[in-house]
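COMPLEX REQUEST
Ligand: S-adenosylmethionine
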Amino acid sequence: MFKKDREGDLPMLLEKIYHEKGWDFRNYKKSSIMRRVSKRLTCLDIHSYKKYCQYLNDTPHEYEKLFSNLTIKVSEFFREPEVFGELCGIIKTNFSETVLKVWCCGCAYGEEAYSAAILLSECLTTDAVKHTKVFATDIDGEALDQARKAQYREESLKNVPPDILEKYFFKADGQYKVKYNIRNLVKFGVLDIVGSPSISGVQILFCRNLFIYFNKSLQEQVFEKLDYSLRPGGIIVLGKAEVLPPSFAHRYSPVGERLNVFRKKVAR
Ligand SMILES: C[S@@+](CC[C@H](N)C(=O)[O-])C[C@H]1O[C@@H](n2cnc3c(N)ncnc32)[C@H](O)[C@@H]1O
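STATUS: Structure written out below.
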């Protein structure tokens, strides 16, 4: 009974967050949102969403804590290394001399964006890489401030091969920092993919481990923006547990085996 009361008031809380702060979590998966909000409620010893709404009124800085809880930023360099292996082959075969526009949507603290930049440095010609850019965006501006510092703990680098570590990182304050030639390829910016227009003319698009937090209708809605962004013949990379929304599946061909890498078909 108590649990049901709490569930019933969740839309009210999400509406409040949207109207007060403009963060639209209304179509994120309910189970995941409930789990994340529960953490705050437990921390504050608050037992209903209604009381939590009141607490937000009285303590506006709580919004930032809630936001940080709702946006899960777990990542690592070369997450799913086999995907980067496949991408390396694709780039060398199809794009090696092309000036590329790459977009990491939902880039968290930058691990994926710098991994992409390293991949491009390894796979493109020197001339192409000079003009290539990785646009790395996230809803969380604080995470991006951290990403721009490009400094990481050893745990997030466990998939980085020793020669790549040596070539593209240096040690600083007991951590690893990304070298400037790689940092210069990446441009970070805040972009809420639910509420904002997307980037156009992209040839390689990473959107990994973001759709898992969206309900089906939001996945369709957001994928429409990604589809608009990606040039015909371009590559989109989704996370391991994610699928192409059904209404777009016919416009993409899978690349590699079970990798969740897809090529956008060229219309004839
Ligand atoms: C789990 S991380 C994924 C990081 C990286 N793509 C990876 O796969 O390792 C999900 C990221 O999506 C971001 N995010 C959540 N909602 C978003 C939205 N509406 N627009 C843009 N980014 C969002 C979060 O802030 C978080 O950094």
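REMARKS: The domain at 2-70 is CATH 1.10.155 (Chemotaxis Receptor Methyltransferase Cher; domain 1). The CA atoms of residues 198 and 225 lie 6 Å apart.
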